[in-house]
Every structure is written in structure tokens, then in C-alpha cells.
Specification:
The chain has 98 residues and is of the alpha+beta class. The protein has helices at residues 10-14, 17-21, 36-47, 51-64, 74-86; strands spanning 24-29, 66-72, 90-94. α3 (36-47) packs across α4.
């Protein structure tokens, strides 16, 4: 049987709608290596966050163990996560909390 139009991924068809609506995100994790000032510097330098926002995110990483530093399309988030690795930070990409 031939199909007309784009083929839909079966996983997308079966996924709950709410999981499709969640944006991808870059999460930076606390680590025993990087100084807090360096982490804030990375957030300011790479993301362009103002000093106050960079420090707020850095403190969240320090006190809560992690912080979401970016959300958006998967490709963009994967680039951000890779950049965090290049700066020496522990970071992951995921689909976000439901």
C-alpha cells in the first residue's frame, strides 16, 4: 500500500499531547570542580544573561543541584548543552518536566 503525504512517526502518534508541548531544555548540574563565579561568568558570556540573572541561576545550581538555563527547540538545546561541556560544566538536555 502506498501512502500519500508525510509519514508520521508512530511514537509521535502514541505520545501524550502534553509531552509534545514541552520544550527541550539545557540543565546545568552542580559539580565539585567549577567555582561559582566561573559558572556565572559562563552564563553571562555564552547566554548573554545580565549579571543578576547569571548569579541567580548559578546559585540555583549551587543550592538545588541544578538549574534550567535554556529552553527551546531540540537542535538549539543540544548546541547549548555541548557548549556548556566545552566550558567544562556538567549539563544535560531533556524534554522537561511534565
Amino acid at each position: 500500500m502506498t501512502s500519500i503525504g508525510p509519514q508520521l512517526d508512530e511514537e509521535l502518534l502514541l505520545a501524550p499531547r502534553s509531552s509534545l508541548d514541552r520544550p527541550w531544555r539545557t540543565v546545568v548540574w552542580n559539580d565539585p570542580v567549577n567555582l561559582m563565579q566561573y559558572v556565572a561568568h559562563v552564563f553571562r558570556t555564552y547566554f548573554g544573561y545580565p549579571r543578576e540573572e547569571a548569579e541567580r541561576l548559578m546559585l540555583r545550581v549551587h543550592h538545588e543541584g541544578r538549574a534550567v538555563v535554556a529552553t527551546g527547540p531540540r537542535e538549539q538545546i543540544e548546541r547549548h548543552t555541548e557548549a556548556m561541556h566545552e566550558y567544562g560544566l556538567w549539563a544535560t538536555s531533556d524534554k522537561g518536566d511534565g
